[in-house]
Amino acid sequence: MIKGSYSDGKTSKALDVFLYTTDSGRIGIKDSHKETITFHAVKVSPRIGNTTRYIEFPDGAVFETEDNDAIDAIIKRFSSSHYPNIVHRLESSKQLVVITLLTMILLGWGFIQFGIPHFSREVAMLLTDEQTKYLGVDLLKTMDKHMLEESELDPQRQSELQSVFQSLLETLHKDNIRLVFRKSEHIGANAFALPDGTILFTDDMVALADENEEIISIMLHEIGHLQHRHSLRMAIQGFSLAIFITAITGDVSASSSIVTSLPAVLIESGYSREMETEADTYSLLYMLGHNINPIHFATIMRKLEASNTYAYKKCLNDNKSIQTCLGEAMQSREQTKADSESLGNYFSSHPGTDERIQRFEKAAANNH
Q: Residue 19 has what pLDDT?
């Protein structure tokens, strides 16, 4: 006898009853006019913890009970299945639960670490230039609203650099890339490429250069990022991660926060070592092929490195010139915690800086 409640499937009324079994494998409801029915004709819900179990009859009637052990005993006695209550067995095994959890963590990590980047690379290379424009436009608008200000760079200097940039594009036979300038105390000296083909230089970045060739080397580096669609791949990775998190957790708000923070992610998290190497190679090959000394890239990179030191920032606060402060910072070995915590720290997102600088210095030495 199993105590529970019974509803006939026609009304919402439920009665407290007892369910019984016979030796011949039939079940019935005590003190009712309902005929007994073979056990194989009913549907028994699987055991999940100690939640209520249901036995559904062919005519729509339902028997409910919390006596899971009794239901399990009936299944064991009359079921022909070799794996009764397999769900309950699995969830009741601590060892299996731990193994399953670890497996899911490893699979999730593997998918995020390798699956999403591979998927993003394939998708990015399939998209047309027209399709990628829609991503960058909104990103730049968001950044203009929260991180960037209108450039204070001299209009003549902007025009000069635009002319240099257009000359580069002509030799590269590209007409889908544009250059913009912005001021940002939040980001500092930096340059980056957006998925739609926009390359952005901050005023502080331009101020670091003594020669146009230094700016050109960075322009080429950012064009290299666009050539390999690195920023687009990062954007797709962000969207893919948001979808993955939503699928796993069902939390739409968590994934939304990833999408809305994408502009900051593109600046702060930066590219992988592989992506940086590809962009460096693109810049280096162009410079070698067009008689531009690779030392210019090494020089501007060292300046960028120096511009994030405490010595440089302290020097600027003393109202000294940028070039004077760069010289002092390059000679100083003083570093503080503020260097690594600075949001505008270019090198937090550009790994292997010394190695990259040495590569260009070596190329310059071998080429001259």
A: 94
Mean pLDDT for 143-150 is: 89
CATH of the domain at 62: 2.30.29.30
What CA–CA distances, in Å, run from 213 to 39, 170, 262, 355? 85, 17, 31, 21
End-to-end CA distance of the chain: 96
Tokens found for residue 209: 């250069």
Neighbour count for residue 44 (Cβ, 10 Å): 18
Which tokens go with 132? 């990628």
Q: How far apart are CA 326 and CA 43, in angstroms?
A: 79
Which residue range is the domain that position 174 belongs to?
A: 131-308+344-367
Secondary structure (3-state) at 203: helix
Beta-carbon contacts of residue 84 (< 8 Å; ≥ 6 apart): 72, 75, 76
Residues 6+ apart with CB under 8 A from 278: 224, 228, 230
Task: Give the pair of three-digit tokens for residue 100.
Answer: 């399953």
Phi, psi of 309 (to 5 degrees): -90, 160
Together in a domain, 65 and 142: no
CA 289 to chain centre: 36
The packing angle between helices 322-331 and 295-306, to 10°, is 90
Q: Phi then psi for 135, rounded to 5 degrees?
A: -75, -50
Give the mean model confidence (pLDDT) for residues 271-293: 92
Flag whether pLDDT at 4 surpasses 60.
yes
Q: What's the pLDDT score for residue 203?
A: 95
